[in-house]
Design a protein that fits this description.
Blueprint: E1 27-31, E2 38-42, H1 46-49, E3 55-59, E4 61-63, E5 67-72, E6 78-88, E7 91-97, E8 107-110, E9 115-122, E10 128-134, H2 138-145, E11 171-174, H3 186-194, E12 198-204, E13 227-231, H4 233-244, E14 249-252, H5 254-267, E15 273-277, E16 292-296, H6 303-312, H7 314-326, E17 337-340
Parallel strand pairs: 1-17, 3-12, 3-14, 4-11, 14-16
Antiparallel strand pairs: 1-2, 5-6, 5-8, 6-7, 7-10, 8-9, 9-10, 12-13, 13-15, 16-17
Helix pairs in contact: 6-7
């Protein structure tokens, strides 16, 4: 299949700039992947779609406030740093802009001296290897001076930084939120538990590669970015017990889906696992773990709409996207949700 097969026309005004309040009042499109039937509602209606004995698998990663503005020590010039991933020993891979100001050997200061940085090297692709200096805990310092690295299609200011975190976020390390989980409230999760649906946790630290466009015509030639995941023992046991008892394993988001399918692919079964995955799921892929998927609406020609097409069927997917545009659903990170059953 070609990348262009996954294009759809999206009016700019349907790209959500702000999250809905409260979280679970976003709209919900329910899709039956067997026959393509559609049902419209709100996210709190997800309770009616879940059955006793099902399990929800959510990604408990937490987004780093990884966008920082500092000054070059020599000249006072303003530079933006975006933390990508840690290399250990206070070394980080970063995107810097303007890049010409961040040559190896240059030093920067952030937050009135709370944090200092030395550029060590220029990596392949132009990112920088940066050594940070600070007192106390690095993540506490970042919390004080950093901003949320919102996706490029969100151009308005986010007043409450926690609205780009899920209510169950715990493990710091993502450059972007697992946005399907943004619709859940603590109250809705409790109602779900009360119905007899169990909730399991995985961690996949979302990289900025999730926004990287597919630049090849033949999608099978695309190279996926790699992301770190962890599936704990108790979650593996929950999934296996759910399957054994005839319940459904429902992935909340493409990140949870990719974690589960990676472990099932690598190990042949679901068991405790940790590692890096660059799994690329597109039509023709045979799913080995998940039975249903909660997700948002994704960018045209993205690897995420390809994953959805693999699970829901290509024709079903392009049809429900067309309907969502016609019905003026809200798209992307702060947009509405889809439940594919």
């Amino acid at each position: 299949m070609n990348t262009s097969d996954f294009f759809y026309d999206l009016p700019q005004n349907l790209i959500a700039q702000h999250p809905v309040e409260p979280r679970d009042h976003s709209r919900l499109l329910v899709v039956d992947r067997e026959n393509g039937d559609l049902k419209h509602g709100h996210f709190y209606d997800i309770l009616d779609e879940l059955r006793e004995g099902d399990c929800l698998i959510v990604n408990n990663t937490r987004v780093l406030p990884a966008r920082m503005f500092g000054t070059k020590k020599e000249t006072g010039a303003r530079v933006e740093f975006l933390l990508l991933n840690t290399k250990g020993d206070d070394l980080w891979e970063c995107i810097t802009g303007p890049g010409k100001r961040a040559k190896p050997g240059t030093s920067f200061t952030f937050g009135d001296g709370l944090l200092e940085a030395d550029v060590i090297d220029v990596l392949e692709g132009g990112n920088r290897l940066v050594k940070f200096r600070y007192e106390g805990n690095f993540y506490n310092v970042i919390d004080q001076i950093g901003q949320m690295p919102l996706p490029p299609y969100i151009t308005e200011t986010l007043e409450d930084q926690e609205r780009y975190q899920t209510v169950y976020s715990k493990e710091l390390g993502s450059a972007a939120a697992p946005t399907a989980g943004l619709h859940f409230t603590d109250e809705l999760l409790q109602k779900i538990r009360d119905k007899g649906v169990k909730i399991g946790y995985v961690t996949l630290h979302v990289g900025l590669g999730t926004f990287r466009p597919v630049k090849v015509d033949d999608i099978s030639q695309h190279t996926m970015h790699s992301e770190h995941y962890w599936l704990p023992k108790e979650t593996a046991e929950l999934i296996n017990e759910t399957k054994k008892n005839g319940g459904r394993v429902i992935a909340v988001g493409t990140t949870s889906c990719r974690t589960l399918e990676s472990v099932a692919t690598f190990n042949g079964k679901i068991e405790e696992a940790e590692g890096n995955t660059d799994i690329f799921i597109y039509p023709g892929y045979e799913f080995k773990c998940i039975d249903a998927l909660i997700t948002n609406f994704h960018l045209p020609e993205s690897t995420l709409i390809m994953l959805v097409s693999a699970f829901c069927g290509y024709d079903n997917t392009m049809n429900f996207y067309k309907t969502a545009v016609e019905e003026k659903y809200r798209f992307f990170s702060f947009g509405d949700a889809v439940f594919i059953r």
